Every structure is written in C-alpha cells, then in structure tokens.
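Progress report, Aim 2. The chain analyzed during this reporting quarter is listed below.
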Amino acid sequence: MAVVTTEQGFREAVTNSDPTIELANDITIEGGPIIIGFDTVLTSFRAAQGIQSTLSKGFTSGSLINLTANASVSIQDLILNGINNSAGSLIYVTSGSQLGLNTGAILQNNINSADGGALLNQGTTTINGAVLTNNITSRFGGAIANRLGGLVTFNNGSIIDNTANTEGGAIDNQDTNSRFVMNGGLISNNNSLGNGGGIININGGSSELTAGSITGNTSQTAGGGIYNFINSGDFSLRGSISIIGNNAPEAADVYTAEPNFQIGGQPTLSLAIADEPSIPKIISSVDGATLQLTNSSYLPVNPEGSRIIIAAPTPSYPVLTPADARAFIKPPVGYDDWEVEIVNGSIALTRDLPFTITYENTQGALNPNPTQYTAESLPITLLPLTLPGFAFLGWRDPTGNLVTEIPVGTTGNLRFIADFIPLDAAILFEANDAGGPPATNIPAPISFLLGEQATIPQTIPIRPGFRFLSWNTAPDGSGLSYAPGQQLIGTGETITLYAQWRVVRRSSKPDYIKLAECCRALKRRQCH
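Predicted structure tokens for the chain:
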C-alpha cells in the first residue's frame, strides 16, 4: 500500500504497481494522464473518518487516468475532479481492462470536447455506488460514452446533472457489441441538446434495464429518458425499472424506433412508438407493469381505422394474456373511444368505429342490408334485392368483383353496386268463367321483353249465354281494361288479363210458342 501526498508520489506508486494507493490530501495532476496497467485500488487515506481526497485534472489534453489492457482498477471514497476545456474524459478504460466505481467514488466537473464527459469505456466498467455528476461533453455521452464493444454495468449509484451537446445526456451506448446494463441506481436531471436526455442506444449498441430509476432528464428533441435509435442492438426493459417524469418535445420518457425492443416484468414508463416494426416484443409476463402509451407518428392524435397493434409475442413468451394487455394504457389524446385488448395473439388498440356502407344502382328496391358496420358486427352476409322485372345477379365492389360477405378484419368505408338484368315480360289470359258455362277461344299467353310493346290478340272469347266485353287486370273488372288489338308496354311483371262478360237476356216464352208464332208468320216450310 502507498499513501501519497503529491503528484510525484502518486506517479511513483503507479510505477511500483502498488495494489492500493491512498491519497492523504488533495492532489492536482498536471503532467498528463496517469497510465495504469496493473491491478490496484484508488482511495482516500482518511476514508474511515469520512474524509474524501480529490484527484484533480490540471491539464487539457487526454484523460486523467488511462487503463491499459489487463488492468483492473477499483476506485472508492475518492473524488476525481475535471477541468474546463478538456480534450479528454476523467477515465479512459481501454479494451481488455476493468474499472470498478464503488461507493464514495465521485467523477465530476469535467468539460470534454470529445465523447464521454466523465468516462470513455471500451473495456468493462461496473458502477457500485459511485456518483457521476456535472460533467459536460460537446459530443456524445454527458457522463459515459460506451464504445467499441465495451460493457458498462450500473448496479447502484447516481448519474446526475450531466450534459451532452449532441446526444445522450447521461449515457451514450453505441457500436456493435457495446452493452449497457442497469440493475439499479439513479439517472436523473441530465440534459441532451439532441436525442436521449438520459440514454441513447444507437448504432448496434444493446441495453438491458432491469431496476433503478430514470427520471427528470431532458432532451431538446426526442426521448427525454431514453432514445432507442434505428439500427441499435437489442434493447430490453424488464424487472422493476422506472422511467417516468422525463421531458422532451417528443416522447417524454421512452422513444423506440428499432424492432429489437423488448419488455418483460413490471417496468413503469411512458412509451412513444415510431412505427409498427418498433412495437415492443413481450419476452415475459407484464402483468402488473405500467406502460403508458403516448402520442407519436404511429399513434397520432387523430387516428384512423379501428385497430392498431401495439405489442407482439415472442418465442420465449408466445401467448399474451388479458393481464398483459391491461399493462398498456392508451394514449392520452384521441383515444377516448378505444380499448386495449388481445387481437389475433397480439396486443392492440381497438375501437368500434361505425364505418359506412353505400349501396348504388338499387333502382328503388327495398334494401335489407346495413348501412354501417363495426369490427364487432363482422362478418356480414350481403342479402339480395328484389326488383320486379329484373333478376338480381349480386353485389359488386367498385372494381367489378362480386362480393357476398364483408369478412372479419375489414376496415374503412365501403361501396357496393347492385347488378341486375331484365326479365322477359308476359301476358296471361284468364277465361274468368268460374261457375260455367266454360269459355272458349281464349288467346294463348304472349311474352315480350321489358320496355317493348305488346299487342293484345284480336281473338274474341266465346261463352254460351254471355257476351265478351273486354279484358281487365282484375277478375271483377275493377282494374285496368284492355280491348283486343290494344297495345301495352311491358313493365317486367307478368300481367294476367281476365275476360269480362255480360249475360245475354233470353225471352220468357217457351220454345214451342215461339215456333208456332214463327209458323203463323211465315210459310210452314220456312219453319222446318
């Protein structure tokens, strides 16, 4: 163990690879970065008395501490203090090296023109109780920039009051195989002039957040708490992580624009979804979670349609339940008449919006079909129309396809056109001779097309004791009358014409008296 009081003493302890280096007082490093390539613990000599020493950066180019490959450094009960106009972070963790930031470690007050206000990590960093505060970067990651396959695990501690003038107010997690894990702690009051007031996940970086709180962060564009950018790696929110109370013009808490977005457990957050591929994929039960949806380009203030998918199952959790659906809270504006429910195995926003159905070319026929429909009323079988003189062929859509049913899943207003063809018209002739004697010489039926003229035959019906008067559309003569030879125009209906008769009066004298009178008036031979 080495107890140091000066920069020279600190550098000698590093040269000697002391396993523990304790600062007995505050030290300012002015001779350039401290390069550590071995395993050691950095702490304060009077930590047991609650007194922390400060190791300050007194130069502008490079990081205060650089860890080379295979180094493993633990910092506790020690303050690392930065400098204005710095061209480097407080700590640079190279690939293959390890850093532990433990209780009492504070990384503060560094203004860096490069990535990572306090920490640039390309190796493995674990945070157990440390505080990263009041650091500023002109680029990405106000407190931490995690790059080139680095791993940052945040178990406990605070990352607060940091600023990125580009993106990622607290943490910038990017590059393929870079990974940020949050199992606890607080990320709060950080600010980004771009996206991701708390965290930005971008360009292949993956993140897994299971516990802790992300709150009070601000983005000047989108994703006050977290911005999960296009082409990022897996991004999963699970366990009890809380992401609420952040601020941004778009998506106050969480913005996702990447398909590899996963949710499980009981997280609490508000969520803005960029498009359907970016909806959360459910990897375990979210019963008990609070997932407040917010308005976005995918969930606009004035939504159309009657169904919007908001979450999907995964192979690890293939069957979503009503309890999972209840975890989602519909957006605050424009969704009063919507509900959250399971639809075809996914979780969706749905509503019973009455869509209109317009029917054309009905030609006045009584239409028994509905003029509106909702998702709940489907399927609907379209009923035929009845129009005298016509045969109904069916309903056609505007492109000419025959439609017999409106199936489940249909949305939007619909238009159908009735398709008819005219039937042959016919005239039937009825003797109308009930009670006898029977009539003869009744014309045969005639047929003709709709709209054509037809002529009633000149044939005169004969009935003993009766004289034919006319034809009539009613048996009792109360309808329309027609005479032989008269024309009429077919209406498409079969017309039945009934013969109208008048009884011929007979003399009351018997036949033999009439014969005798005839013989007296004429010569006898004329009567035989």
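The mean pLDDT is 92. Helices lie at 7-15, 322-326, 511-521, 524-527. These observations will guide the mutagenesis work planned for the next reporting period.
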